């Protein structure tokens, strides 16, 4: 079994991208931390040859649900747009998140799990429930909508 | 639908623009190591430090320092053995090794002649463990022969086994196998290479 440090190095960036796409830049870091802590706890019992990225994304999804729930319990003024951040990369991300958060959660998740985590739709279907085809459609619909929104958003920024 | 694919590529590039940078991941990593420590799920903490004998890998369990390794042994290889023999719940967590790192630095500066550390000897057993325990009695600046150690363990014929035990010492430097020489006065082998052994002997002779 690989040392867990190697798992963090290999999958940390992708899991953070997924958390950002599903939860937004603010909550992503808490979700990432909770995901890897839970993963570390369970790691020795993981069967040899398991798909580690899919396993991590499954945990991240559970953590994201917890965060959505606690956000619903403690509603924050999410409609308020954040201050424009100074760095270029962060501005891109905020613009993207601005567009992403208008998508239904299911589309956002299908998109993130397939395009950012690289999971095949069969794995995405296991995570989200429903058929493989339905997940493919969710991701495509999300991507289509995102393309329109993001383009508008980029034009507004530039 | 090529036009859709193109847009998709553009979008994915947009997501990559928000690529987590090294500083964010480093911050998250330290937070994970700290959280794992307080939750009691970090079985092994390690760090890598610079030294006059090359970079050193230090690993500790809750019981104490369990492994000191030389860079020539390979960081990945050393961690893999720790994962196989102790636990895969391993993270780089320098805070957990601050005391051994400081004491080793003092040793290399010539300011420390003995270590005051909790040691976890679980990586050594049987006769090798007996040898390792005898090695702990060799004082700074002193040397003993492999035959001398064999005699001290009450098994004067076990010179080769002493050599193997020194070569497999899980805690070199802290348990001073570098102070064991051949009967002909040559330095003999060393896990960190013969050059490293000579550096350590010269360091201690100068004090």
Report on this model:
The complex is a heterodimer of chains A (158) and B (207). Chain A has helices at 4-23, 25-42, 52-73, 88-100, 105-116, 121-128, 132-157. Chain A is mainly alpha-helical. In chain A, 41% of the residues are buried. Chain B contains 8 helices and 6 strands, in the order ααβββαβααβααβα. Chain B is an alpha/beta fold. Helices cover 46% and strands 13% of the residues of chain B. The longest helix of chain B has 18 residues, at 22-39. In chain B, a hairpin with a 2-residue loop joins strand 2 (56-61) and strand 3 (64-70). In chain B, the strands form 2 sheets. A 4-stranded mixed beta sheet of chain B has the order 3-2-1-4, with helices on one face. A two-stranded parallel ribbon of chain B has the order 5-6. The A-B interface holds A 1-6, 8, 12-13, 16-17, 20-21, 25, 29, 32-33, 36-37, 40-41, 43-44, 88-90, 92-93, 95-96, 115-116, 143-144, 146-147, 150, 154 and B 4, 7-8, 10-12, 14-15, 17-21, 24-25, 28-29, 31-32, 35-36, 39, 41-42, 44, 46, 76, 79-80, 82-84, 87-92.
């Amino acid at each position: 079994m690989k040392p867990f440090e190697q798992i963090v190095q290999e999958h940390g960036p992708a899991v953070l991208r997924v958390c950002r796409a599903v939860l937004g830049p603010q909550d992503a870091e808490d979700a990432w931390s909770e995901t890897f802590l839970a993963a570390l706890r369970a790691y020795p019992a993981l069967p040899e040859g398991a798909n580690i990225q899919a396993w991590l994304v499954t945990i991240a999804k559970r953590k994201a649900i917890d965060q959505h729930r606690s956000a619903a319990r403690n509603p924050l003024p999410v409609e308020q747009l954040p201050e424009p951040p100074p760095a270029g990369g962060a501005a891109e991300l905020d613009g993207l998140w601005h567009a992403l958060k208008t998508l239904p959660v299911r589309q956002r998740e299908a998109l993130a799990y397939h395009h950012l985590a690289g999971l095949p739709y069969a794995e995405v279907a296991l995570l989200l429930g429903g058929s493989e085809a339905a997940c493919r459609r969710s991701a495509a619909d999300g991507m289509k909508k995102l393309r329109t929104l993001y383009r508008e958003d980029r034009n507004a920024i530039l | 639908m090529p036009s859709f694919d193109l847009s998709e590529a553009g979008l994915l590039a947009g997501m990559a623009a928000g690529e987590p940078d090294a500083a964010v991941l480093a911050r998250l990593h330290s937070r994970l190591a700290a959280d794992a420590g307080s939750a009691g799920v970090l079985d092994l903490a390690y760090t890598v430090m610079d030294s006059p004998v090359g970079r050193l890998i230090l690993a500790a369990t809750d019981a104490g320092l369990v492994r000191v390794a030389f860079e020539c042994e390979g960081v990945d290889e050393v961690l893999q053995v720790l994962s196989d023999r102790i636990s895969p719940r391993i993270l780089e967590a320098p805070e957990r090794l601050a005391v051994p790192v400081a004491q080793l630095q003092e040793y290399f500066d010539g300011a420390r002649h003995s270590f005051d550390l909790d040691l976890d000897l679980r990586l050594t057993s049987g006769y090798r463990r007996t040898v390792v325990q005898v090695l702990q009695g060799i004082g700074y600046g002193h040397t003993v022969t492999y035959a001398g150690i064999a005699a001290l363990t009450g098994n004067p014929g076990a010179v080769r086994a002493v050599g193997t035990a020194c070569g497999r010492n899980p805690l070199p430097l802290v348990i001073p196998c570098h102070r064991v020489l051949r009967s002909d006065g040559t330095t003999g082998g060393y896990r960190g290479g013969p050059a490293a052994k000579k550096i350590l002997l010269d360091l201690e002779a100068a004090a």
